[in-house]
Amino acid sequence: MAQDCIFCKIVSGEVPSDTVYEDEELFVFKDINPQASVHLLVIPKKHISSLADVTEEDYGLLGRMMGMAHLFAAKAGSTNGFRSIVNTGKVGRQDVFHLHVHVLGGEAPLPPMIYRNS
Ligand code: AMP
Ligand code: ZN
Fold first, then answer.
1. Residue nearest ligand 1's atom 16 by CA
2. Active-site option among 39, 98, 100, 102
3. Residues at CB less than 6 angstroms from ligand 1
4. Which of the 8 DSSP states describes residue 76?
5. What span, in angstroms and rounded, lies between the C-alpha atoms of 61 and 66?
6. pLDDT of the chain, 118 residues: tens digit per residue
7. For a substitution probing ligand 1, which of 7, 11, 32 has the most ligand atoms within 8 Å of its CB?
8. pTM for this structure?
9. What is the reported pLDDT for 60?
């Protein structure tokens, strides 16, 4: 656990979240500022700062995060597809430096791209 990491605090339960899935390695919860009717965050319980900080030992974990995304999307009501986004670093406009996959969807098709309101 990294000190002062909001997502580590969510994993530990110190900060509440709307949790939708949890196992030994992964934690999935609803984004607090949803950009679509379905907006989940898939995170590793282990603190990894970003996709640029992944090492070879994390490849299996990453595979599970991406490989299970469709299950989380469908369970949340996005049964005809979804979008997965990983913002990385300054260029990627990453705000929270604990690796996370955004899973966005719903019943209607998303816009061609997701633009932040702020
Ligand atoms: P990013 O810009 O890719 O780092 O996205 C960070 C995401 O975390 C944003 O979509 C935020 O709305 C979301 N977020 C930040 N704090 C929380 C929180 N306490 N609970 C749920 N989602 C959060
Ligand atoms: Zn963390």
1. 32
2. 100
3. 6, 15, 17, 31-33, 41, 87, 93-96
4. T
5. 9
6. 788 999 999 999 999 999 999 999 999 999 999 999 999 999 999 999 999 999 999 999 999 999 999 999 999 999 999 999 999 999 999 999 999 999 999 999 999 876 666 5
7. 32
8. 0.96
9. 98
CA of 51 from ligand 1 middle (Å) equals 16
Q: Dihedral through CA 57, CA 62, CA 68, CA 74, nearest 10?
A: 160
Q: What are phi and psi of 24, to 5 degrees?
A: -65, -30
- Predicted local distance difference test score (pLDDT) of residue 1: 76
Whether 92 and 63 have beta carbons less than 8 Å apart is answered as: no
Would you call 100 a catalytic residue per the annotation? yes
